[in-house]
Write a structure and sequence with these properties.
The protein has 282 residues and is α/β, with parallel strands linked by helices. It has nine helices and ten strands. Helix 5 packs across helix 8.
Length: 282
Amino acid sequence: MKQVEEKRGKLSASELGHQDKGAPAKAPAYVLLPGDPNRIAVMASQWDGAEEYTMSRGQKAAHGVYHGADIGAYSTGIGGPSTECTLTDLCARGAHTFIRVGTTGAIQEHIGIGDIIINDSNVRLDGTSQFYVRPEYPASASYEVVLALVQACENLGFRYHVGTGCTCGSFYTGQCRTTYGGYRPSGLDDIFENLRKAGVLNFEMEGATVTTLSRIFGKHAGMCATVVAHRITGEWNEDPEAEKKACLAGVEALRILTEWDALKAAAGKKYFSMSLLKGDQA
């Protein structure tokens, strides 16, 4: 058993990866993580240039350039387990900064359809991160990624909200929806209202996995998502262009992060602060 455990601690990139075939062996340092493989083409169309790849298990990827920044995008599929595979593989390939980009359902009245939600933290109901660390460990985004996403939305003129989301390992009952045949476990209404009263903004399915594992692995991560469903009003997105907003906010944030990382390196700083933008490094 000891030999098996030692080998597991020394897995190569190819042994770690489920996404191993198709894309180059070296991943970009800055990566977008959409769930839907079809969103890769949407993202690539927003960049200055990109090469797309089809990989195993129906996943897709793209490497390219956006306003001078070398970036990538890799689809994760839906939910925590497949996200775990993609994220772990990308860490082994050299990526260090991740932004999950997708769609979400709002559970607060003041949030509108088409708005961007930037989750700086998530309730960990993803079903995957629990296997890595005890439940009290926070699913918190990197403050630099959150700040870059805020700045990206400001640059692009997008209406946005920042706060805690809820990552669920279920699309239906986990997000307090009634499922096939009218099945609805008791207590879902109480769960929904308690999350709302606690100020949770939205439901989604990958954020907590990305931020928890990234923090454990010593990487930087965050997320943004376009609101396509409103669980209070019953509204649904009717504009197919809406999800493109989160894709654009994500890639603009990656561009900003590359600039901030360069400033940190030039100043010999480990953390970003506003003084770096002002040239005050005292």
